[in-house]
Specification:
The protein has about 450 residues and is an alpha/beta fold. It contains 18 helices and 15 strands. It has a domain at about 85-100 and about 215-420: 3-Layer(aba) Sandwich (Rossmann fold), CATH 3.40.50. The two termini are about 30 Å apart. The structure holds pyridoxal-5'-phosphate (PLP).
Length: about 450
């Protein structure tokens, strides 16, 4: 299996090369040159992960199995991603049983291990750079902290992540972890990360790499729970996915392209609804990132949407190249039609998020986190047309179960949960000391040169 760039101007890469570099050298995202067919019929979560990963990865079976086993041994539920019924034919897919309480752990715990393995095979060091809206950073720190030959720099938007999210990042005691609180938005952080990758001399000198959701290994690892949930329910489902950078929902498309029968993928966004507008109105145009109660989705530039555009255009890399250069992209009719055959989208505001959180608590006694609440609210609107949509296919007839991806533990966002329900969700036992630990981070203004020198000064000369 080889990997190609969505922008068509990068050499083919192996899985290990794509894993270690993150972004393709032409600025595009890596994709498999052809989708493998994968069958997951029952078995454990680990078996399913092995079936999916071995279709892509260039590691031997024993190594892959060992990494999968140890990655998921860090989870506090034996099913890794269990389903919980919250109503007639409606399920939560709990993705928050990993060490940092958000779904990012599912991919990152595995990616960290595969990454260390690929790096040991290649030799040399790596500088890992991650822009985070909160959860990727802590998941990366939990996965890479203390690993040899790796320095990890995490940029989070100062004051725009929850206190639990910040403390999970800044209380790491590993010397290879460097936290930067950027005085700006997530999009500012992501822009700086992209600019540092584009700086070839710097990228080469520091052996720069990304573990953001642009890394294909994360997409592969996240597609696993679409398979296991479908196998557990015994029939095709509609998946509702709280969406920011479009990585998690694209993992659903990846599962479909590997042969999984899925009824529909429902994209749930908060007020930062660029992707919902693109899918409903055919206009992809970034505005200003707004702060909401679901901060991990406060994103305007949804990097992985590029992968969906690549597929929806029939893998037309010239189209993707031009499209990504536009500030205001009007999607061609054929691309819109292809996207609409798979996706629908609903944007949910903070008031609705709080109301849904309260309503789920009242009806089921469960506390859910605000990102999950956005998806529960969107699930209520399946089949409704997006606002402003004047053309497009008729409302989808849904018959199977609805699976709502529950992407974070409520204790990660206690303020929003308390506002909606009056209850403060307790931290799981493993994290109870979090508020007593010492924090360590550096505040920087969103200036490319400043961030570059900060990193250069902390990467050992090789
Ligand atoms: C990252 C994140 C999301 C959004 O996932 P994307 O892959 O960026 O679309 C949703 N919810 C939570 C809790 C997250 O951490």
């Amino acid at each position: 299996m080889n990997f190609i760039s969505t922008r068509g101007q990068a050499p083919r890469a192996t899985f290990s090369e794509a894993l270690l570099s993150g972004l393709a050298p032409d600025g595009g995202l890596y994709m498999p040159d052809a989708w493998p067919r994968v069958d997951v019929a029952g078995g454990s979560y680990r078996d399913a992960a092995f079936a999916v990963l071995r279709a892509f990865a260039d590691f031997d079976d024993a190594a892959l199995k060992a990494d999968i086993a140890s990655a998921y041994a860090t989870f506090d539920d034996p099913h890794i991603a269990p389903l919980a019924e919250i109503g007639e034919g409606r399920y939560l897919l709990e993705l928050f049983h990993g060490p940092t309480l958000a779904f990012k752990d599912i991919a990152m715990q595995l990616l960290g291990r595969l990454f260390a393995r690929a790096l040991a095979q290649r030799g040399g060091r790596a500088t890992v750079l991650a822009a985070t809206s909160g959860d990727t950073g802590s998941a990366a720190i939990a996965a890479l902290g203390g690993l040899p030959d790796i320095e990890l720099f995490v940029l989070h938007p100062k004051g725009r992540v929850s206190e639990v999210q910040r403390r999970q990042m800044t209380t790491s005691t590993h010397a290879n972890i460097h936290n930067i609180a950027l005085e700006g938005s997530f999009d500012d952080a992501q822009a700086i990360v992209k600019a540092l990758f584009a700086d070839e001399a710097f990228a080469r000198k520091t052996q720069l790499t990304a573990v953001n959701s642009i890394n294909f290994a994360r997409i592969a690892a996240q597609s696993v729970y679409y398979f296991t949930a479908t196998a557990a329910l015994g029939r095709a489902a509609t998946f509702v996915v709280p969406t920011g950078n479009f990585g998690d929902v694209f993992a659903g498309e990846a599962a479909m392209r590997m042969g999984l029968d899925v009824e529909r993928l429902v994209v749930a966004t908060n007020a930062n609804d660029i992707v919902a507008r693109a899918l409903n109105d055919g206009l992809y145009e970034a505005g200003r990132a707004e702060q909401t109660l679901s901060p991990s989705m406060d994103i305007q530039v949804a990097s992985n949407f590029e992968r969906a555009l690549f597929e929806a255009s029939g893998r037309d890399d010239a189209f993707v190249r031009d499209a990504m250069a536009e500030r205001r992209l009007v999607l061609p009719a054929a691309v819109r039609t292809a996207l609409a055959a798979r996706y629908e989208a609903h944007a949910v505001g903070d008031a609705q998020t709080l109301a849904t959180l309260a309503q789920v608590h009242k009806a089921t006694g469960r506390l859910i986190d605000p990102h999950t609440a956005v998806a529960v609210a969107a699930a209520e609107r399946i089949g409704e047309r997006g606002a402003g949509r004047t053309a497009g296919p008729s409302a989808h007839q849904k018959t199977g179960p609805v699976v709502i991806l529950s992407t974070a533990h409520p204790a990660k966002f206690p303020d929003a949960v308390a506002r909606a329900t009056g209850q403060i969700p307790p931290l799981p036992p493993g994290l109870s000391g979090l508020h007593q630990k010492r924090e360590n981070f550096t505040v920087l203004s969103p200036d490319l040169g400043l961030v570059r020198s900060f990193i250069a000064a902390r990467v050992p000369a090789s």
